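S1.2 Input.
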Amino acid sequence: MSTHYFIGIRIPQQIAQQIGQARDSWNLSTHKRLTPPGDMHITLVFIGEDRFDELQEIAERLGKIDQASFRLKLAGVKTFGNPETPRIVYAALAESTELMNLQQAVVQQLETLQLSTDPKPFVPHITLASRWKGGSLPASWGLEAMEFLVDSFSLFEIHPQKTPRYREIQTYSLKGDA
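S1.3 Output.
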Protein backbone atom coordinates (compact mmCIF):
# COMPACT_ATOMS: atom_id res chain seq x y z
CA MET A 1 0.00 0.00 0.00
CA SER A 2 1.41 3.38 -0.97
CA THR A 3 1.76 6.27 1.45
CA HIS A 4 -0.99 8.89 1.49
CA TYR A 5 -0.76 12.57 2.43
CA PHE A 6 -2.93 15.49 3.45
CA ILE A 7 -2.57 19.12 4.47
CA GLY A 8 -4.16 20.04 7.77
CA ILE A 9 -4.15 21.78 11.11
CA ARG A 10 -3.11 19.82 14.20
CA ILE A 11 -5.41 20.49 17.17
CA PRO A 12 -3.44 21.84 20.17
CA GLN A 13 -2.73 19.02 22.63
CA GLN A 14 -4.66 20.50 25.58
CA ILE A 15 -7.76 21.12 23.43
CA ALA A 16 -7.51 17.67 21.83
CA GLN A 17 -7.31 16.08 25.30
CA GLN A 18 -10.44 17.97 26.42
CA ILE A 19 -12.31 16.96 23.25
CA GLY A 20 -11.23 13.34 23.76
CA GLN A 21 -12.41 13.36 27.39
CA ALA A 22 -15.80 14.76 26.36
CA ARG A 23 -16.13 12.12 23.62
CA ASP A 24 -15.09 9.34 26.01
CA SER A 25 -17.79 10.46 28.48
CA TRP A 26 -20.43 9.58 25.84
CA ASN A 27 -19.40 5.89 25.98
CA LEU A 28 -19.55 5.90 22.20
CA SER A 29 -19.54 2.19 21.32
CA THR A 30 -21.33 2.74 18.01
CA HIS A 31 -18.15 3.23 15.98
CA LYS A 32 -15.14 1.01 15.31
CA ARG A 33 -12.57 3.80 15.44
CA LEU A 34 -12.28 6.61 17.98
CA THR A 35 -9.74 9.26 17.00
CA PRO A 36 -6.96 9.46 19.60
CA PRO A 37 -6.39 13.05 20.82
CA GLY A 38 -2.88 13.02 19.32
CA ASP A 39 -4.36 12.46 15.85
CA MET A 40 -7.08 15.13 16.03
CA HIS A 41 -6.79 17.59 13.17
CA ILE A 42 -8.70 19.62 10.59
CA THR A 43 -8.04 18.44 7.04
CA LEU A 44 -7.60 21.36 4.65
CA VAL A 45 -6.89 19.24 1.54
CA PHE A 46 -6.60 15.47 1.19
CA ILE A 47 -3.88 14.60 -1.32
CA GLY A 48 -3.87 10.81 -1.27
CA GLU A 49 -0.86 9.11 -2.80
CA ASP A 50 1.92 11.07 -4.53
CA ARG A 51 1.54 9.32 -7.90
CA PHE A 52 3.38 12.04 -9.84
CA ASP A 53 6.27 12.56 -7.40
CA GLU A 54 5.14 16.10 -6.56
CA LEU A 55 5.59 16.02 -2.78
CA GLN A 56 8.67 18.29 -2.80
CA GLU A 57 6.88 20.77 -5.05
CA ILE A 58 3.84 20.69 -2.75
CA ALA A 59 6.05 21.36 0.28
CA GLU A 60 7.70 24.34 -1.45
CA ARG A 61 4.42 25.84 -2.63
CA LEU A 62 2.83 25.61 0.81
CA GLY A 63 5.71 27.73 2.13
CA LYS A 64 4.50 30.61 -0.07
CA ILE A 65 1.23 30.96 1.84
CA ASP A 66 1.22 34.22 3.76
CA GLN A 67 -1.60 34.46 6.26
CA ALA A 68 -2.02 35.68 9.82
CA SER A 69 -2.76 33.30 12.67
CA PHE A 70 -6.39 33.16 13.81
CA ARG A 71 -8.69 31.66 16.42
CA LEU A 72 -11.21 28.85 15.92
CA LYS A 73 -14.15 27.91 18.10
CA LEU A 74 -15.90 24.55 18.44
CA ALA A 75 -19.59 24.66 17.57
CA GLY A 76 -21.07 21.41 18.83
CA VAL A 77 -21.17 17.87 17.47
CA LYS A 78 -22.50 16.80 14.08
CA THR A 79 -22.41 13.72 11.86
CA PHE A 80 -21.77 12.71 8.26
CA GLY A 81 -24.03 10.11 6.70
CA ASN A 82 -27.41 8.86 7.86
CA PRO A 83 -28.17 10.55 11.22
CA GLU A 84 -29.39 7.21 12.61
CA THR A 85 -26.23 5.32 11.54
CA PRO A 86 -23.61 8.03 10.91
CA ARG A 87 -20.34 7.14 9.20
CA ILE A 88 -18.56 9.89 11.15
CA VAL A 89 -19.16 11.81 14.36
CA TYR A 90 -17.30 15.11 14.42
CA ALA A 91 -16.71 18.32 16.34
CA ALA A 92 -18.06 21.14 14.20
CA LEU A 93 -16.33 24.50 13.98
CA ALA A 94 -17.86 27.96 14.09
CA GLU A 95 -17.76 29.85 10.80
CA SER A 96 -14.34 31.33 10.15
CA THR A 97 -13.41 33.48 7.19
CA GLU A 98 -9.74 33.02 8.09
CA LEU A 99 -10.03 29.22 8.00
CA MET A 100 -11.82 29.31 4.65
CA ASN A 101 -9.15 31.70 3.30
CA LEU A 102 -6.36 29.36 4.45
CA GLN A 103 -8.05 26.36 2.84
CA GLN A 104 -8.51 28.29 -0.41
CA ALA A 105 -4.87 29.45 -0.34
CA VAL A 106 -3.78 25.80 -0.05
CA VAL A 107 -6.06 24.79 -2.95
CA GLN A 108 -4.70 27.62 -5.10
CA GLN A 109 -1.10 26.57 -4.46
CA LEU A 110 -1.92 23.04 -5.64
CA GLU A 111 -4.11 23.93 -8.65
CA THR A 112 -1.55 23.44 -11.41
CA LEU A 113 -0.15 20.16 -10.06
CA GLN A 114 -1.21 16.76 -11.38
CA LEU A 115 -2.43 15.40 -8.05
CA SER A 116 -6.14 14.74 -7.70
CA THR A 117 -7.49 16.33 -4.54
CA ASP A 118 -10.82 15.46 -2.94
CA PRO A 119 -13.59 17.11 -5.02
CA LYS A 120 -16.11 17.26 -2.15
CA PRO A 121 -16.90 20.71 -0.71
CA PHE A 122 -14.75 21.71 2.28
CA VAL A 123 -16.58 21.09 5.58
CA PRO A 124 -14.27 22.10 8.45
CA HIS A 125 -14.44 19.47 11.21
CA ILE A 126 -12.51 17.37 13.71
CA THR A 127 -13.31 13.66 13.35
CA LEU A 128 -14.13 12.09 16.73
CA ALA A 129 -15.36 8.63 15.66
CA SER A 130 -15.67 6.74 12.39
CA ARG A 131 -16.83 3.44 10.91
CA TRP A 132 -20.33 2.75 12.20
CA LYS A 133 -20.69 -0.66 13.84
CA GLY A 134 -24.18 -0.41 15.35
CA GLY A 135 -25.84 0.39 18.63
CA SER A 136 -27.48 3.44 20.15
CA LEU A 137 -26.16 6.96 19.84
CA PRO A 138 -26.07 9.22 22.91
CA ALA A 139 -29.25 11.18 23.57
CA SER A 140 -27.18 14.37 23.64
CA TRP A 141 -23.64 15.37 22.86
CA GLY A 142 -21.92 17.43 25.53
CA LEU A 143 -19.00 19.37 24.10
CA GLU A 144 -17.83 22.59 25.65
CA ALA A 145 -17.48 25.59 23.31
CA MET A 146 -13.68 25.69 23.34
CA GLU A 147 -11.58 28.16 21.40
CA PHE A 148 -8.00 27.75 20.22
CA LEU A 149 -5.29 29.53 18.26
CA VAL A 150 -4.30 28.33 14.80
CA ASP A 151 -0.73 29.50 14.25
CA SER A 152 0.43 26.82 11.80
CA PHE A 153 -0.64 24.13 9.36
CA SER A 154 1.23 21.04 8.19
CA LEU A 155 1.83 18.56 5.43
CA PHE A 156 1.04 15.14 6.94
CA GLU A 157 1.96 11.58 6.05
CA ILE A 158 -0.58 8.86 6.93
CA HIS A 159 0.55 5.67 8.69
CA PRO A 160 -2.63 3.54 9.08
CA GLN A 161 -1.02 0.82 11.22
CA LYS A 162 0.75 3.16 13.67
CA THR A 163 -0.20 5.40 16.57
CA PRO A 164 -0.16 8.27 15.98
CA ARG A 165 -1.45 7.66 12.46
CA TYR A 166 -0.58 11.14 11.18
CA ARG A 167 3.02 12.39 11.09
CA GLU A 168 3.86 15.97 10.23
CA ILE A 169 6.43 16.08 7.43
CA GLN A 170 6.64 19.86 7.34
CA THR A 171 4.94 22.59 9.35
CA TYR A 172 4.25 26.13 8.13
CA SER A 173 3.89 28.99 10.60
CA LEU A 174 1.19 31.60 10.19
CA LYS A 175 2.13 35.20 10.89
CA GLY A 176 1.43 37.28 14.01
CA ASP A 177 -1.02 36.89 16.88
CA ALA A 178 -4.75 36.49 16.63
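S1.4 Remarks. The CA atoms of residues 54 and 142 lie 42 Å apart.
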